[in-house]
Amino acid sequence: MSDLHDLLTAYWPHIVFTVTTVAGFGAAVHAAMTKRDVRAAIGWVGLTLFSPLFGAAAYFVAGINRIRYTRVSQQRDEAMVYYAREPQVEPVDVVPLTGPQFASLKRLTNCISRFQLLGGNLVQPLDGGDEAYPAMLQAIRGAERTVALQSYIFDHDPIGCEIAEALIEAHRRGVKVRVLVDAVGARYSHPPIVRLLKKNGVPTARFMTNPMGVLRMPYANLRSHRKILVVDGRIGFSGGMNIRAAFVRALALDATNRDTHFRYEGPIVAQLQSVFAHDWDFTTRESLTGPDWFHHDLVPRGDAAMRCVPSGPDRSINSTHDVLLGALAVAQRHVRIQSPYFLPDQTLIGAMITAARRGVRVDIVIPGKNNLRLVDYAMMAQIDQLIRHGCLVWRTRGAFDHSKLLSVDDAWTYAGSSNLDPRSLRLNFELDTEIYDRDIAAWVSARIDAAIANAKPLTLESLQALPFTKRLRNKIIWLASPYL
């Protein structure tokens, strides 16, 4: 033992140097061989070679995609294939619903999403928590067989407790209830709502609590940002809204945050249930099957054609990114975009600029007051690229708006949980829907236009008028935008 101690004492600098060099070189090789984005590869290789110890540690925690490159990916893919099985139906002709340019977009999304485009859906937009939460509570309280709820944030506050009590009551009367909350999002309130649910016997789980198989801790860069509620396999809710008192006017008063959610009936509900069952199976190893959970009900409930577009750091990593590129390519008159966190990559920026140069009006609405200050700084560092080439950028007045909406030519809508930022487009598990329906697109367009009517336009002059120190700060924060 003494000899070992003497050896370590004499040669510890050499041992540390060897270990750090091997770790840094190994991390650099792994990054070069596995990263698909050359900028990410260059960044990680540079960090791990110039700072081997810190760089290797940072790469191990934040740089390795443990979903895409381990057996977890195979498990997720196999589960999705199983749960995504749908009855074969006649292809939907979207031209009468939206216009001839959208036939090519439908063909593109056929190649991107595992789900079919299904007609006969009823879509009800819900503007804010004052419309969404009562509708969700009504559905839960009327449940007869099953309730599946998934959320990124499910706060332990008055509205969270009201929904939790509805879930508990449903469980007590014999309804099968499953609740899935993201492991990072569950920490937004203390005590977490999952304790209340579990205490009352409701089967509840946290998504990605233990991704590395060693420590029971959330993996911050692989979050489930999805929002899903399915009741009896027949009524579905999805969109951008978490469960928080901040979205209820009676609780938040003048500081009430805005958001947009949707209530669905028709064949699309089976797709929402499939995404939830897939994530629940991955998290708990419990399979949700049978008629209680799934009703592949093709009886028309409305006129909208739509499908789910799941995305995440697995095999569907570029799904939303590619759909957005396709939508911008087919636009002929007007693109409206609303996102609280607007940090598109250069490819998407180029697509928006190209649309504007073709004569398409491109309106981009972002919050005047953002709840994530660092993200807002980064947004201001690159927004000039769009303004310079003809896109119109608007900063809303009033309370924070968390909506994620896109409409094209007042005919096609893309809505859900995805922000236009690196985290949503590459790191988070997200769920969006594409909707071929003029009435829904008109509602979304009108909502965005109303925000524009009360917004302040951003100009190159106003951006240049910012003090140099603020512009420098924004650029520095922008460099870290992939991890904000």
UniProtKB/TrEMBL annotation:
GO terms for molecular function: cardiolipin synthase activity. It comes from the Bacteria. Keywords: Membrane, Transmembrane, Transmembrane helix. The keyword Oxidoreductase does not apply. InterPro entries: PLD-like_dom, PLipase_D/transphosphatidylase. The chain crosses the membrane at residues 12-33, 40-62. GO terms for biological process: cardiolipin biosynthetic process. Residues 220-247, 397-424 form the PLD phosphodiesterase domain. The keyword Disulfide bond does not apply. One of its GO terms (cellular component) is membrane. PANTHER family: CARDIOLIPIN SYNTHASE, PHOSPHOLIPASE D. This is Cardiolipin synthase. It comes from Achromobacter aloeverae.
